[in-house]
Amino acid sequence: xxxxxxxxxxxxxxxxxxxxxxxxxxxxxxxxxxxxxxxxxxxxxxxxxxxxxxxxxxxxxxxxxxxxxxxxxxxxxxxxxxxxxxxxxxxxxxxxxxxxxxxxxxxxxxxxxxxxxxxxxxxxxxxxxxxxxxxxxxxxxxxxxxxxxxxxxxxxxxxxxxxxxxxxxxxxxxxxxxxxxxxxxxxxx
Length: 189
Fold this sequence. Notes:
The protein is α/β, with parallel strands linked by helices. The protein has a single domain, classed as 2-Layer Sandwich (Nucleotidyltransferase, domain 5), CATH 3.30.420.10. The protein is about 40% helix and about 15% strand. The protein contains seven helices and six strands; from the N terminus they run E-E-E-H-H-H-E-H-E-H-H-H-E. It has helices at about 50-55, 60-65, 70-80, 90-105, 115-120, 125-140, 145-160, and strands at about 5-10, 20-30, 30-35, 85-90, 110-115, 185. The protein has a six-stranded mixed β-sheet. Strand 4 (about 85-90), helix 4 and strand 5 (about 110-115) form a beta-alpha-beta unit. It is globular and about 45 Å long. InterPro entries: RNaseH-like_sf, RNaseH_sf. One of its GO terms (molecular function) is nucleic acid binding.
């Protein structure tokens, strides 16, 4: 599989107000990793809903203390992805990806493909997809944190990939050079 799955958590959904990315996670055959994003000064006055906080459990105070600057998150993320394609299960992830890129001083970011394009290319049935989702639900029960959600999606796609039998269930990404504990690396269960 030549792609990495990506997921964002945010201050709120755009329908509830002006939102910004607070955590980004990726997953591939090696595992999953996430970064907390310290809000830009401009973002601090934007919306933050109780609904979002209850869902992901990340508080504004936690971001201030543990979040990394957007440019550093973007650079580490870009290095971890390398030349592979990015795949997400929600169109809103592309919005937050572009926002992170701009916060990092980049004009644009590489595109994020919607998972439907990958599923179409695999030519799988609805029954195959539902079975893969159940498989991912069993292996990845924790949700609503960026690394967990990215790992869930990668697990779904790995189950559907024709050579999935050759791939182990994801191990977990080792930290990148100069790792700081502000980014989360999932550990083997």
